[in-house]
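Ticket #4471: structure output looks truncated?

Reporter: J.K.
Steps to reproduce: submitted the chain below (117 residues) through the standard prediction queue, then opened the result file.
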Amino acid sequence: MTLSVNPASVGEADGATAVVVTAALHGRRPGLGDGGDGRGGDTGDSATEGTDYATVSDFTVTIGANATSGTGTFTLTPTQDLLVEGDETISVKGTATGLTVTGASLTLTDDETVSTG
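Returned output as attached by the reporter:
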């Protein structure tokens, strides 16, 4: 199963943004339905949960019977600050019984720039 996110980036000043996570099955015949649990943010990310963005609630992706993909949604609320920190990444991971899940990442776009002068 492979995860993808839309939008692929969220601006620091965008405020609360719904992020749709799509899980696509590969090399597997659709059956009675599959699902998995997802999580946004990881300790190895360059963006830090609680500092660069508000805590993200876990979410569920459901793939219906005879379908090859399904979606779930979480809300990403960036922290607007005045730090010049560059763009940062947030991982989106998941687990599903009996499946290997390939995660995705999204970019948290910094809106501050270094002034030269």
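Triage note (M.O.): checked the attachment and the full token line is present. The radius of gyration is 16 Å.
Status: closed, working as intended.
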